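In the laboratory, one determines a bound structure by crystallizing the protein with its ligand and collecting diffraction data. In a computational setting the workflow is compressed into a single prediction: the sequence and the ligand go in, and a structural description comes out. We illustrate the idea with protoporphyrin IX containing FE.
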Amino acid sequence: MKVKRARTGLVITAATILLAALLTRYYWPARINESIDQPLPEYDSEALMRFDGTDPNKPIYLALDGLVYDVSMGREMYYGPGESYHYLVGRDASQPLHVFGAEIIKKKYQVVGRYR
Ligand code: HEM
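The predicted complex, in structure-token form:
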């Protein structure tokens, strides 16, 4: 009886972990940018340049595959002036990001516009 109860507990725990993993993998990443069907402001290369992180009072943007992402959350660690990925911001960084990082950007950061 005790063994059966322990096994049931294990199954419930495993199912909960699996469900949480599935939700994180498929539901949460989709939600962060669920508003991209809505109209978004458009940025060209000149407009994007104004969000390259050199002004601490402005957000930091980069373009990837036609969308503009707000990466300000990574200012201190990656994108501010002097940080290792500063060269990716204020511009269309699709090419280098397809070497590494595109999936991280798409999952982690909010879309704030379209790149034209
Ligand atoms: C073309 C080359 C590369 C590009 C464009 C690139 C770009 C990126 C981007 C955009 C991120 C996401 C940062 C964020 O969370 O906002 C990232 C994360 C990271 N990169 Fe690179 N990367 C490159 C090469 C490398 C190399 C050669 C290394 C190691 C020697 C490296 C190590 C890392 C690590 C460890 C992270 C994860 C940091 C974390 O999430 O804690 N990257 N990279």
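The pocket of protoporphyrin IX containing FE is lined by residues 71, 74, 78, 85, 96-97, 99-101, 104-105, 108 (CB under 6 Å). Keep in mind that any predicted model is a hypothesis to be tested, not a measurement.
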